[in-house]
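User: Show me a protein chain along with its predicted structure.
Assistant: Here is one chain, sequence first, then structure tokens.
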Amino acid sequence: MKKSEMLLTLVSCFAAVVVCGTLAVLLIFLFAKGFPMLGKKLFFGAVSPAEALLGFKPVWDGIWPAVAGTLSLLCVTMFFALFPGIGCGTFLACYATPRQKYWLSLAVDLLAGIPSIVIGLFGFVLIVYLRRTFLPRGTTCLLLAAFCLSLLVLPALVVATRGALEALPRNLALTGAALGFSHDQTVCRLLLPAAGKGILGGIMLAMGRAAEDTAVIMLTGVVANAGLPAGLTSKFEALPFRIYYTAAQYTDQQELRSGFGAALVLLLLSGGLLFCAWGLQRSLERKWKGIR
């Protein structure tokens, strides 16, 4: 083996060890700090779980409202982002002319490069404008935060969908034509199902990005103590803001440790979404291959 090849191998192995080691240190630190705090008190405080889950009593000293707010925010964000994200990626991969690909890709790249705080400012200015024109009673809320977050995660969905479709073997499209499918039928019945794994990966990335972002929701509706989400037009709590608020405003070590517990819960929530995506991918692959 030449010296240059050996050096490249060593550098690559060192980079891989750095990445794995950094991840391991972060996980060990977070579990060491946050795991002892996991329990009923962290989620529900002094309120019984049944009363908290059914909404009979408000939870002011637990993270359950933030967990419910985060899940609600993810659902509404994906409602806004899924159709335009996957649709735009499909158009770029299967229908767009080279000129359309160039300009549309440029627009997606520009959107991806916008900092999240700028998108939050856009949402804030938007609601100020609406208050002065069409919605005098409009205010920052869950709906506005989800809309702004959907702009943030849209490029990830577009790029993942386009990449998954363009990575498929060209023979697959030719097979559709050989079977007498039109181009639309080939895209709907062959290409999109075959690219499902990559598209789901993009959806999970987008959900993870939406779950952890704080800058956007700080300006568009999240507050420290709002209780369970009362509706799309109400204020809400979210785990990333709860962690940020606790780290900035904690008054004793117990409160700081609860912040580590909330961070661990957010990590487990993201891991749970990843596990669900993996299960869904396996199910789609088995269905695609005709395995029962």
